[in-house]
Fold this sequence. Notes:
Elements: E1 7-8, H1 19-25, H2 42-62, E2 69-72, H3 75-89, E3 96-100, H4 105-116, E4 120-124, H5 134-140, E5 145-149, H6 163-173, E6 176-180, E7 199-203, E8 214-218, H7 247-285, E9 289-291, E10 302-307, H8 312-318, E11 322-323, E12 325-326, E13 328-330, E14 335-337, H9 339-343, H10 348-352, E15 354-358, H11 365-384, H12 387-401
Helix pairs in contact: 1-7, 2-7, 3-4, 7-11
Bound molecules: pyridoxal-5'-phosphate.
Residues 74-76, 104, 106, 151, 155, 180, 182-183, 203, 206, 214 line the site of pyridoxal-5'-phosphate.
Amino acid sequence: xxxxxxxxxxxxxxxxxxxxxxxxxxxxxxxxxxxxxxxxxxxxxxxxxxxxxxxxxxxxxxxxxxxxxxxxxxxxxxxxxxxxxxxxxxxxxxxxxxxxxxxxxxxxxxxxxxxxxxxxxxxxxxxxxxxxxxxxxxxxxxxxxxxxxxxxxxxxxxxxxxxxxxxxxxxxxxxxxxxxxxxxxxxxxxxxxxxxxxxxxxxxxxxxxxxxxxxxxxxxxxxxxxxxxxxxxxxxxxxxxxxxxxxxxxxxxxxxxxxxxxxxxxxxxxxxxxxxxxxxxxxxxxxxxxxxxxxxxxxxxxxxxxxxxxxxxxxxxxxxxxxxxxxxxxxxxxxxxxxxxxxxxxxxxxxxxxxxxxxxxxxxxxxxxxxxxxxxxxxxxxxxxxxxxxxxxxxxxxxxxx
Length: 402
Ligand SMILES: *Cc1c(COP(=O)(O)O)cnc(C)c1O
């Protein structure tokens, strides 16, 4: 079988809309274009019914009740609403928030904003494997703590946090627990009741649904979580998020969640197998390759590796028919190594030589084999040109003979 180029292997950044999701959405652009808030005619009722159906599909995927799902424009908004909404609502109780250093910017920047208006934020460190120590969390909680915001799984290294233990501690101490579950949902089972999660951010476009459509789970019982809204007007979504609902987007998001629920077990097994094949192929073909983050607690579709003495950016350019990400971010003038890898204690050089592979529903074994071959070929070529690599190899050789 011949493969189609370029190959997309960057599924933590976004995913292709599943054709079944797109078919479900299409009628809601024209035939069924009603406003879900129009209570007095059938156009509105049809739209409302579709939205409520999607609410149910999403709730089932995380073991919540449909009424606990608030639709938003995406996970950036969901994280903002959860953190700012709790901060403002529970200001009388306290002003302390606990999060951790490898969160997505949607959480970190929201916390930074709150610090400017008098809140105190503790940023827990992570170990070399990318996970927080629950004992650190326990110690950080004070009588003023109103929220713990710890992501379910990381978007760069795929590392899964000890969610159930965090939930248990939060419940014990009577502190609300918010989790950004964007990368985890649909890949691993998420259960807000078993894991004692009070707020949970989700988005459509990472689970083969549309962009610009997300949701926030807000617990209604034990305890009933209250939020101050950020967007006012109209009182949609129980007053927590005003604005006319994106009906086609919501329908697609719901359908995407349903597909994940039905296919997750099998799909995660398949992707986990492909990921192992990718890892083994790379390790067999190359020396001086390092895994970033825990392999034991990791999403099945993620691989993040550093290739010593190779610039991630040069590697990306070398394999330009494969779409993956590097661990460097372009800030104003220079390349900055990923703050996530830095937090793990990965040195600057190895952070700059890291690549994130994000496998997805539409990747095949043939594609994985092609990617292995290209990566091995290009890394070898770049290393041949690298005096650093020759020196490093000699050092290794010397230390072995001594
Ligand atoms: C993509 C992502 C977000 C942002 O979601 P949007 O819907 O694109 O705003 C937040 N958190 C994590 C972990 C993500 O991967």
